[in-house]
Amino acid sequence: MTDAQETAADSSVRTSGGTPPDDAGASVLGAPTPLLEPREGIPPVIADEAALAEVIAAFAAGSGPVAVDAERASGYRYGQRAYLVQLRREGAGSALVDPVACPDLSGLGEALTGVEWVLHAATQDLPCLREIGMVPTRLFDTELAGRLAGFPRVGLGAMVEGVLGFVLEKGHSAVDWSTRPLPEPWLRYAALDVELLVDLRDALEKELDRQGKLDWALQEFGAIAAAPPAEPRKDPWRRTSGMHKVRRRRQLAVVRELWQTRDRIAQRRDVSPGKVLSDAAIVEAALSLPANAHALAALNGFGHRVGRRQLDQWQAAVDRAKALPEAQLPQPGQPVTGPPPPRAWADKDPAAAARLSAARSGVSELAEQLGMPQENLVSPDTVRRVCWEPPAAVDAGTVAEALTGHGARPWQVEQVTPVLVAALSSAGADA
What we know:
Largest sheet: 6 strands, mixed
CATH superfamily of the largest domain: Ribonuclease H-like superfamily/Ribonuclease H
Mean pLDDT: 91
CATH class of the largest domain: Alpha Beta
CATH architecture of the largest domain: 2-Layer Sandwich
Helix content: 40-55%
Number of helices: 20
Distance between the termini: 64 Å
CATH topology of the largest domain: Nucleotidyltransferase, domain 5
């Protein structure tokens, strides 16, 4: 590590009132320094079991937190699997592991059990890491730490530049990481993504401690690490872009059939569904209900590049939807398990709408005072649920219990309870 890097690692953004200065994106050391090469050079890609065993031994023998990152091929391949895993730990250096050649990294995950994993935007990478056997027991999320500390820009590049004074080259973030062999510039980029992650973690820990928020952050990190895998999304076809234009049940059935057909093809070909058929084309076909493949070919998205065989398979999906009996057609909207959309509250329950308005105002003011986004102070869904069905007797104890029941962490309960008690009480008195 160079003298400049050591100085940067020891620096944190010095702020007042829990909010970074307006120029938080600028280097705290003056003009930012481009970070062009990993300290020990670009490590070789680990692509066989013997090399993986050496990496596992080296990282097990290392010390301190381990920086972890993963690269996916979003927009190119089906699903969100990892195509490269990057790690760095004191005493072990950096490693680039190919999870295609080494699909089972549970041995590496087990070697790092109990070690704090440092990730940036952890919830994005944890699902693909879990698939290959890497599950942290402890973690530090530098993006979430930046949010809690009040940084206006929390991307990795902005954080490294604003906190440590180094510029990361981010030109390869959206490339096709399933490419083999991976080009050297991409590998350099990948190695640099974990080069200063532990340094950033150390600086952010100091800043959170200075602001009195370190325990809050640790509670958030613990909740992420303890969270079970997400349940499969119900009716994922309903998330098709442009669905708001589709109103009739028969048209919804066309969207569902085309989406499911596209998904099967994409999975079989291992390509992004959008490369098989666009969402816009699916919605266009649903709205038009074409009578045959010739009519389908006239629609946007089904033009001259789509072969006859493909047109026939898309038309077959449309025909299946058109032939469904009424009882099997999907209902508009998704089943609501919680409160209705806030825009409907004024008509359905004016008192609840008044409670929500007061609660939102109070939470917004508190979040501004604490220097963090409202959604990190408390989940908007939690606020809605408490306001829609408030405790029978509103007081600090009952509101705190309701917040806890909806998954709020202890620090959130402590901060938000007085605000919600005041909002629920005042709205109730006005009603």
